[in-house]
């Protein structure tokens, strides 16, 4: 493999870490901001489609597309051109988000089954884009420094904070307008479209040129990775001959699956619990309180704020949980939140509910980053890429299961 002298494994090759962290943060935000915008303006969709349970149905539509796409790419991860995969994902996010704006303008904010099916179709595209980007990015970052994955995951949570903050502002600004909800929703989707376009630019033209990124990708290529060839070629680094993974003793996908089954199940269980409560339960099962229509928005905002805080907590090494058994115990103990939410919704006041939602977000962010940064350690570049894809696959499986279980909260209700 030929490389320029300044890209060798010296100190100069590791320059650009801060810039890399910033770019990863924005790329993380871009991988979720469109979907979070959909969730945050759910009150608008409840107004348009009051009988279709938008928060629950749209989430359920989203997940099969994400899951099937992720299954395909996880199985073929060693053959996938990561550059094309990620650029395609961000481009699809951009097109789908812009499509929501065009659909709403074209129907003049009308309800009915036609526009609802159109929204569902675009949400399905979100699911495909999510699998392309999250699996591709986590796999790509898995063989770089752990701080890059942490920053990417923090960006995911930042998307929620951004959309929640904007939603509170737009609700206050437009609440007295007849079409205030619609104006807020269109503003959200327009901002999301811009951010997705920005991510295309950052990933395609900025991230590959950072010395630290070129160093890690070159290192992965020297260990047999074929997924980084296009990214290296884009910055003028030619891989004359990338050896087969077998020559480096790479573990098979099945072996990696078995060796990391506890980490994979950890992520599955984290998101089974989170998505069985967030967002559907928070919109439909928390009753009437003094905050009125602001109540679900405040709950969503508190979840998002504490989720991003939780994703930065592992940066403090003394409180980062790295024990495999410790992670599993903490994740299983988190299921005590199910009865806690049930009895708080039935008997508690809004203060206790806000506390529980905050803890749900904090634990979700903290445990997610702990698992994703610990699991790839000790493996070679191609193996770390495979592990990253497997972890995202189980994360999406957990989300899908959680979304399905979320319907149990409304069984027996009149509007089921």
Keywords:
single chain; mainly alpha; 18 helices; disordered N terminus
Structure description:
By secondary structure, this protein is mostly helical. It has a single domain, classed as Up-down Bundle (Growth Hormone, Chain: A), CATH 1.20.1250.20. About 70% of the residues lie in helices and about 0% in strands. The chain is built from 18 helices and no strands. It has helices spanning about 15-30, 35-40, 40-50, 55-75, 80-105, 115-140, 145-175, 180-205, 210-220, 230-235, 255-260, 260-275, 280-285, 295-310, 325-335, 335-345, 350-375, 380-405. Helix 4 (about 55-75) runs parallel beside helix 6 and helix 4 (about 55-75) runs antiparallel to helix 18. The radius of gyration is 21 Å and the shape is globular. GO terms for molecular function: nucleoside transmembrane transporter activity. It is found in: Membrane. InterPro entries: Eqnu_transpt. Pfam families: Nucleoside_tran. Belongs to the SLC29A/ENT transporter (TC 2.A.57) family.
